[in-house]
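Give me structure tokens for this 523-residue protein.
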Amino acid sequence: MITGAILIGRSEEHTETTYTAVNPATGAAIEPSFTTAGLPEVERACALADAAAIAFAEAAPETRAVFLETIADEIVRIGDDLIERAMAETGLPRARLEGERGRTTGQLRLFAQVLREGSWADLTIDPALPERAPLPRPDLRVRKVSLGPVVVFGASNFPLAFSVAGGDTASAFAAGCPVIVKGHSAHPGTGELVARAIQRAVALCHLPEGVFSYLPANREAGTALVADHRIKAVGFTGSRGGGMALMRTAASRPEPIPVYAEMSSINPVVLFPAALAARGEALGAAFVGSLTMGAGQFCTNPGLVIAMDGPDLDTFLASAAAAMVGSAAQDMLTPGIHSAYVDGVEALAGHSAVTTLARGVEPTGPHQAQGALFKTRAADFLADAALGAEVFGSSSLVITVTDMSEAKQVIAALEGQLTATLILDAEDEDAAAELLPVLERKVGRILVNGWPTGVEVCHAMVHGGPFPSTSDGRTTSVGAKAIDRFLRPVCYQNMPSALLPEGLRDGNPWNAPRRIDGVLKLG
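Here you go.
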């Protein structure tokens, strides 16, 4: 049931400030009206989260694992109502949203496995050496503990997997952090349905009510959440301007806190000569398929292509242009995203050093993206930083280079990126080896002979990169390692056994991996 409510702990609240969701395909309002949280609601949510923080942090890993699995079960239990509401609010197709629901529940269950396996806590014991000369060593034991209450900002482009119960929320819960979600105004009904599922899971698992709150809030309230002294970290996926604003707020607090913001990336694709010669035509069509998927509204969308000029590139471009001309216009998530996309495409089309190669089918709806493919020379790209700006949507810029040395210069000039893609054959491997050291300094994930649109939720995934792709390139927002963002180490010196945290006591009560006197012991 969707009532347009604010959910603070176990309570349901309403204010006088309301808005309605909008169907991006038609521009029509979708009932019901949704209430907007203000500063009083921020205060109550933060107070509840703070009150729940110690108990939730000290809950046994198994307790938190069961909680995560219960959230997944409750999301599944919503059934088709969740998919239909998300379709109406986002314009995304059923298959995409059903897959995203599976990813959302899958990452919740992944973190339950992480908790049970135990290495996340980094349990380390250096026993006392009282006879060591010239000085004895005290007994030293380390574990990781939760940071405290976390604010998560729901993302517009993934209404399930990066929103209310998305990866930031799942990893923060796994770390033992209460979460306050600032819901996204583009899909409030979807957000409320998922928020109620989490609220039910909190009750079913008999956890403190402050473990979770959901605030459909305006910008002022969102800023107030980040500024509140009880909040210890922030998870954000969105625009560069929005992420930078939150970072400034977090840095200006008396106690600065980390903001894990995923913001801007154009994800370069490097087409190597042998691969281009062998399969340029097929690569052109496949590239446009990746570029236009979901109207290009993916943070890993391939917005830049680097390739040597010549007949083989011409074959690729002819194939890509033909595929682009036939690509249907698609509904974008919000009017604001559509407007920014149109502005970005128009800026490229009007640039004196840029050639328009192809445009997609003309839009028929009010907020549809018409795909766009452009070309420029490396020298012109290097001369104008504006050509490297992200255009969020199904637009890409091809940069022609004279040789792979010039390609290296282009890569070195790029800002930090989430991904880089290498399209190569065996004959290209030596050239690729020359680029790898530069790419490793620029991106978080390097993939070969695939397309970047698609992120596997697993232990080895990195979905992060140097600024501005993320605010902290040492971390990932996808995969098991995302839990590390919301943990910090605490050392216990000569602590009596009865006072030690359970995971550090002799006998290994958690049966977890521990490093003892430098030797890793697996349970």
